[in-house]
Amino acid sequence: MSRSWVVGVLLAGLAACGVPRTATVPELVGRLEAGDAAAAAELVARMGRGAPRSERSRAYVALLAVPDGIEQAVRNACRSPDPVLREHALALAANRRWAWAAGEATVALGDPEFPRRYVGAWALGELGAAGAADALLDALESGGETAREAARALVKLGPAAVPRVLERLPTLGDDARGYAVRVLGDTGAPSAVPALLAALENPATRADAAWALGRCGDRAAGPALVRLLGDPDRNVRMQAVRALGLLETAVAEQSLDRLRRQDPERAVREWAARSLAILRGTPQTYPDDRGVPVLPDALYR
Amino acid sequence: MNHRMVCGLLALAALVLAGCGREPAPSPDAALVRVAGAVVRPADGVVVDVYRQGADLRGPPYTQLGPLGADAGFSMELPPGRYVLVARGRASGERTGPVRDGDLKTDPVPITVEAGKPLDLRLLAYVKRGNAKQPLGADVGWTTAIRGRVLDVEGRPVEGVRVHVYDHIQMSERPKYVSAKTGPDGRYEVQLPEGGTYYLCARDQYGGPPRVGELYGRYDQGTVDPSGVIVGDGQALEGVEITVHKVW
User: Fold this and answer.
1) Residue pair A179/A204 in contact by the 8 Å Cβ criterion
2) How many Å lie between the alpha carbon of B52 and the closest alpha carbon of chain A?
3) Quick one: B163 and B240 in the same domain?
4) Superfamily (CATH H level) for A207-301
5) pTM, 2 dp
6) Contact state of B213 with A179 under an 8 Å Cβ cutoff
7) B97 with B191, same domain?
C-alpha cells in the first residue's frame, strides 16, 4: 500500500469527521495563483507567531516569489500587533521594493512598542532611503541590534547620509557617537576628516576615530595618529597602527617597527607588523607570546 | 451465456488458479539450501558530499549532490583528480551539520577520476549508532576559550545555533573552530589552541553563505568588517554575546 494512498485515506477520514486540515504553503500558493484572494491573507499570516519557525520561513520564501495579489495583505501585516509577523512583512516589503515600504519601515523603526525595530533599519538600508537618515541617526541611540542595524543602513545610504551624520554628530550620546564615527569610517568620506580628528580628543570615540581616519585615506591625519601610539588603551594603539598602515605614510615607519617588536599586547604587535609590511612592501614578522617570530595572516589579500 | 453458466465458469477458474499457485509440499529428506539477501531501503533524502582528497570531511564539501530522489541515483561531472565521497542522510532533513544517532551515512569512499573513464559507484550507507560528543579541544587540553550567549533581537537566548570562529577578518572559506549547538540558555563555548584575534558569527546552518530564512548574526559594531575578539593565551574570555536574526 503506497504511502500517498494511506495519507489520502487519512485526510479523507479527517475531512469526513469534520476536522479542518491546515493548507500547506504550496497549496496556498496554488490557490493564490488560481485567483483565490483569501489565500493571500492566509499565506501572509503563516509568517506570524502562530506558525512554527520553519513554516514561517517557507511562507516568507514563497511570498518573495509569487507574482502579485499579496501587496495589501503584506501592508496590513506591517502594522500587526504580532511582532514576528510584522518583522517578516517589513522584510518582505523591502525585498519586493514596494513604494510604501520605506514609510512603513520608518514607522516601525520609531515605534517603541515594537521589539523588533531593527528590521525597520534593515529595510531602510536595503531600500536606500536617503530621506531616512535622521530616523536612522535617532535609532543609534537605542543601542543593541537596532543601533547596529541602523549603522549598517547608514553605511548603505553612503555619501548621501554623510552631511546629516556630520551635523548630528556633536549632539549624539557617547555610544551613538561611536556608531556614527564608525559609519563615517565605513563611508570613507573625505569631508569627515575634520570631525574625525576632533573625535580623537574624546576618549569615548578615540579608537573608533583612529580606525575611521585610516578608512578615509587622508595622509594629513598621520601625525595625529602617530601621537596615539603611546596611548595606554590597547584598542586605541591597535586602531592607530591599523590606520597608519592603510594611510601608507612613511612618517609612522619607525614607531610601527617599535610597536611590532615591543608592544606588550600581541594584537598590537600583529597589526603593527601588517601595517609595516604595507609600508615596506615585504612580509614582517612579530614576536608571539613566547617570543617566537611569526607572520600575521595575510589580511589584505 | 446465462447467469448460472457464468458463475460456474468463474468458480472453475478460481479452483484452477488456486491449484496453480499452491507450493509443492517440501520433502522431509530434501537438502536445505540457505538463501540470504539484503533488504535495501532507497536512500531518498540523502546528500552526497564530494571532497577533494585531503580536505577536512567535517567541513564544507567541494560540491554537494542531492537530496537524492527515491531511486537514490546521482550523477555529476568532475574534473580529473582524487576525491572522497560521503553520503549522509539526516533525520532532521538538514543538508549539513553533524550526523547523529539514527542518521544514515557511508564510510568515506575515495575515488580517482581519470579523463575519459566514467565511473559507476555503489555507496553502501548504514545507520549511525551512538552519538558521543566531546567539546572540541577538550581532549588536547586547550585552555584558551571564548564564552558567551547567542540571543535573538529581543534579547532572549537562542537554542540550536553554533558559533563559528575564524582567524581572518574576511570570514571566508570554512571556520577554523566551531562550537557545539547552543542549549535552551543560548550559551556557547569555543576552546582555542592559543590566544589571538578571532572573528565570530553564529548561525543555525553550516556551509556556504547564509541563506534566506537562516538564523545568522556576526559579532560586530555595525561596521562593514567584523569586530575582532582579542583573547590572551590561556584566557577564558566571558560574555561575548552575539545577536542573530533571520536572513532576509
Assistant:
1) no
2) 24
3) yes
4) Leucine-rich Repeat Variant (1.25.10.10)
5) 0.74
6) no
7) no
